[in-house]
């Protein structure tokens, strides 16, 4: 009897595996159907995600047409945020529906997620801070998509403002992704107007009045040639050392026009100085 009992105990694991296998073989069509259903749900979700993004872009593009540049920038910012919220929401919904199709008890999963979320929330304060900072950043309107800004030590054009991060692209084309919680001070160079400023070092021992008059005459001609609203003004000497003195020329201009104007003003000023025999 003892030997029979020992053999029976030894065969129990094999019997258990056999039962599981037989159950799987008998129900495998149901498992395949569930997996196919989940795959179809994910595929449909990806299609909805694609067309939803296109719809958001199209609606925002229509809203931008004919609007002022500032209003257009705010609309693009809203588009960036709405797209981010739409992505997070749809990802979550697709995951829940797909798990439910497989046979996972979603209600109990949500309960566990709710309890765990509280515990995780205390341990992920940085993530929560990024979300809250992103909402305040958008709500206060300190920056918009398309603005030239300096934040967290990086300067560039704002390409995207999401719930958790802000993306900049600098002059070299490098892309910086900055957590919203790290944004403390914002230097926005795209509000209302800019000053195009050109500083020219001029050698000592020359007639400063004649140089200033010549440069101002050249700036008047340049403004007329380019049909500028404001004429560049020669401010005069702003600095001096033992090697040279510095003359400044500046003009009020539209946002993002300052770099082009500075290059052209510098070229026109140096050409005039060389023409009149002055030494830069």
- What CATH architecture of the largest domain do you see? Orthogonal Bundle
Count of helical regions: 6
Helix content: 55-70%
Helix and strand content put the structural class at: alpha+beta
Strand content: 15-25%
Average pLDDT confidence is: 78
- What's the count of strands? 8
Kindly identify the CATH topology of the largest domain. Answer: Helix Hairpins
* Main sheet overview: 5 strands, antiparallel
Radius of gyration, taken over Cα atoms and rounded to an integer in Å: 33 Å
Uncertain stretches? none
State the separation between the terminal residues, measured CA to CA.
113 Å
- The strands making up the biggest β-sheet line up spatially as 4-3-2-1-5
Overall shape: it is elongated
One letter per element, helices H and strands E, the order comes to: HHHHEEEEEEHEEH
Overall number of domains: 3
Secondary structure elements and pairings:
Blueprint: H1 2-64, H2 69-102, H3 106-123, H4 125-140, E1 148-151, E2 154-161, E3 165-169, E4 175-179, E5 186-188, E6 194-203, H5 208-226, E7 233-240, E8 244-253, H6 258-275
Antiparallel strand pairs: 1-2, 1-5, 2-3, 3-4, 6-8, 7-8
Give a structural overview.
This protein is of the alpha+beta class and 280 residues long. It has three domains: 14-123, Helix Hairpins, CATH 1.10.287.1260; 127-188, SH3 type barrels (Roll); 194-275, Alpha-Beta Plaits, CATH 3.30.70.100. It is built from six helices and eight strands. The strands form two sheets. The chain has a five-stranded antiparallel β-sheet with strand order 4-3-2-1-5. Strands 6-8-7 form a three-stranded antiparallel β-sheet. A hairpin with a 3-residue loop joins strand 7 and strand 8 (244-253). Helix 5 (208-226) crosses helix 6. The protein is elongated and about 105 Å long.
């Amino acid at each position: 009897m003892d030997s029979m009992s020992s053999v029976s105990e030894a065969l129990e694991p094999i019997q258990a595996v056999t039962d599981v296998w037989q159950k799987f073989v008998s129900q495998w069509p149901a498992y395949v159907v569930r997996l196919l259903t989940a795959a179809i749900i994910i595929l449909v979700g990806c299609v909805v995600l694609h067309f939803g993004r296109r719809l958001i872009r199209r609606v925002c593009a229509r809203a931008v047409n004919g609007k002022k540049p500032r209003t257009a920038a705010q609309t693009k910012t809203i588009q960036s945020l709405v797209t981010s919220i739409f992505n997070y929401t749809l990802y979550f919904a697709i995951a829940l529906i797909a798990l439910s199709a497989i046979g996972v008890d979603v209600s109990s999963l949500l309960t566990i997620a709710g309890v765990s979320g509280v515990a995780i929330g205390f341990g992920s304060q940085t993530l929560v801070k990024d979300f809250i900072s992103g909402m305040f950043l958008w709500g206060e309107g300190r920056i918009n998509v398309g603005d030239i800004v300096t934040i967290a030590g990086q300067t560039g054009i704002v390409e995207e403002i999401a719930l958790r991060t802000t993306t900049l692209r600098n002059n070299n084309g490098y892309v910086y992704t900055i957590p919203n919680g790290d944004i403390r001070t914002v230097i926005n160079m795209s509000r209302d107007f800019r000053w195009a400023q050109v500083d020219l070092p001029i050698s000592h021992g020359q007639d400063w009045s004649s140089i200033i008059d010549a440069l101002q005459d050249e700036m008047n001609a340049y403004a007329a040639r380019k049909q500028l609203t404001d004429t560049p003004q020669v401010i005069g000497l702003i600095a001096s050392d033992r090697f040279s003195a510095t003359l400044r020329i500046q003009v009020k201009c539209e946002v993002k026009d300052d770099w082009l104007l500075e290059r052209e003003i510098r070229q026109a000023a140096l050409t005039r100085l060389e023409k009149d025999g002055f030494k830069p």
